[in-house]
Specification:
The chain has 18 helices and 20 strands. It is an alpha/beta fold.
């Protein structure tokens, strides 16, 4: 077997449930099924379960100390895994305290495995070398990354392994290792049956790995794009961008990169991955501009960037948020016969998004006032931009438009709003940069009061299409956008 295989873990608490899950899994695009025998709370019917799988089976019985559910000792674990060998499992995944005792059988590969839920050891390659010295045909290791450079260390350790290896970085930070791992030599990547049935932190679904990320088609030379931010889980931008790459026939993938250190994407990541472009979200939009060697006029006016494009080994920064705000607000104002020149506009927020949105309104001639929860930060930004300030929660001012440039109201805090309901009136425009959910409380209350609304999806589509054009020179097909495409780029 070659690398690039997708394994779907069968996670169940009973034999009956495991059989039912396995039947569901037979319709999913997986190459292997992993039987998590340690999670079955009764005596596992190993023989029946192995025989029932429609895919080759990896049998696993993980101890509690290694993140599993098996409470008995090594002897009991060994006995269960030996039954899996005799039942004809294609692979048996065994930890260090058990792997030496496993008896070999033709047709079954032994995988020596090790998990680190505390971090990523500094001597990872050496630790993997010691794992490879144990009896077994393959090795598997999983670590907990602190930031995106740890994913690269996993790739290096896989490449250095003297045996076929499966290397995984767990959790949300580790998603790139699951998507790009097979392209970097990892023999298998793991994807769940559905949300909530993950066998380890950070697993996407098998359907996402196969269909959206197209992991079987990726190579080391496939262009990499992604979303740089913290958090990134609320964004679904990876859906529309990956759909666009597939529809336009571009050998590329788009991955959410959770990172607290944007400098990694200047100093470390581009030297290891064919990174071609990034969407940038909170809190890194101002830092993104500092990473770049050159920028567009939109990014300069906004003082922040939501887009980075790799050109001649350097980053070029742009702000398609700025262009999207100008486009959507101007269109709404024309439709409503409203004059923006000289009109008072309240922008809620004090970060890079507020700066970009405020600058866009200012470019249309509006008088911008800033209100943020952090008074000192708000005053500092307003001073730089030449804007007025207002207190957070203030409703006076006769605003023509109020723009939410914060994350207030975003999933999961959908009951929150950054602006009091009593502040709305007919003839106003409510602009919300939040994408998820599409109809926020902020917009619903504005609409009930008779105000016109601009939702985040309108801006999302415009700015995402702008990013795709910058990166590829092609138009993003509109069919890339569906009910699951709204996110928080």
């Amino acid at each position: 077997m070659n690398g690039g295989m997708i394994c779907l873990p069968v996670v169940a608490g009973s034999n009956r449930e495991a059989l039912a899950r396995m039947a569901e899994a037979s319709a999913e695009p997986a190459d292997l099924h992993e039987l998590r025998l340690d999670l079955i709370r009764e005596r596992p019917d190993v023989e029946t379960l192995v025989a029932a799988s429609t895919r080759p089976v990896i049998a696993t019985c993980r101890s509690e100390g290694q993140g599993g559910g098996f409470r008995d000792g090594p002897a009991e674990r060994l006995a269960i895994l030996e039954r899996a060998v005799l039942a004809g499992a294609a692979f048996v995944d065994a930890e260090e305290d058990v792997v030496c005792g496993l008896k070999r059988r033709e047709g079954t590969r032994i995988v020596a495995s090790w998990h680190d839920f505390a971090g990523t050891p500094a001597d990872l390659s050496e630790r993997v070398g010691r794992l490879a010295a144990l009896p077994g045909d393959w090795i598997k290791f999983a670590v907990t990354p602190a930031d995106q450079d740890d994913n690269l260390r996993v790739f290096d350790a896989v490449a250095a392994s003297p045996k076929p290896a499966i290397g995984i970085a767990m959790g949300e930070v580790g998603l790139p290792s699951r998507v790009l791992g097979p392209a970097h030599g990892s023999m298998v990547t793991f994807g769940s049956l559905s949300r909530g049935l993950e066998s380890a932190p950070g697993q996407p679904t098998a359907a996402e790995l196969a269909g959206l990320y197209r992991v079987r088609e990726l190579t080391r030379n496939s262009a990499v794009y992604g979303l740089l931010g913290d958090p990134v889980a609320q964004s679904s931008g990876y859906v529309c961008h990956n759909r666009a790459f597939a529809l336009t026939g571009i050998d590329a993938v788009y991955i959410p990169f959770l990172s607290r250190n944007p400098a990694l994407f200047r100093d470390v990541i581009p030297g290891k991955l064919p990174l071609r472009g990034l969407s940038v979200t909170l809190p890194h939009k101002v830092a993104a501009l500092e990473l770049a060697s050159a920028c567009s006029e939109s990014a300069r006016l906004a003082g922040a960037a939501n887009t980075l494009c790799r050109r001649d080994g350097l980053w070029f920064a742009d702000n398609t948020d700025f262009s999207a705000v100008v486009e959507t607000v101007r269109e709404k104002a024309v439709r409503l016969a409203l004059t923006l020149a000289g009109a008072p506009v309240l922008v809620l927020g004090s970060g890079g998004a507020a700066r970009g949105i405020g600058a866009a309104f200012a470019s249309l001639g509006a008088r911008v006032t800033l209100a943020g929860r952090n008074a000192a930060r708000t005053a500092e930004l307003a001073g730089k931009m030449g804007w007025e300030t207002a207190d957070w929660g203030e409703t006076g001012g006769g605003w023509l438009a109020v723009a939410n440039a914060t994350s207030v109201g975003m999933v999961p805090n959908v009951g929150e709003t950054p602006f009091p309901a009593e502040g709305w009136r007919p003839g106003m425009i409510a602009f919300d940069a939040v994408y998820n959910p599409r109809r926020t409380r902020f917009l619903r209350e504005a609409e009930r009061a008779g105000a016109a609304t601009v939702d985040g999806m309108e801006m999302f589509v415009s700015q995402a299409r702008g990013q795709f054009a910058l990166w590829t020179g092609k138009k993003m097909p509109m069919e890339c956008f569906g009910p699951d495409s709204a996110g928080g780029l």
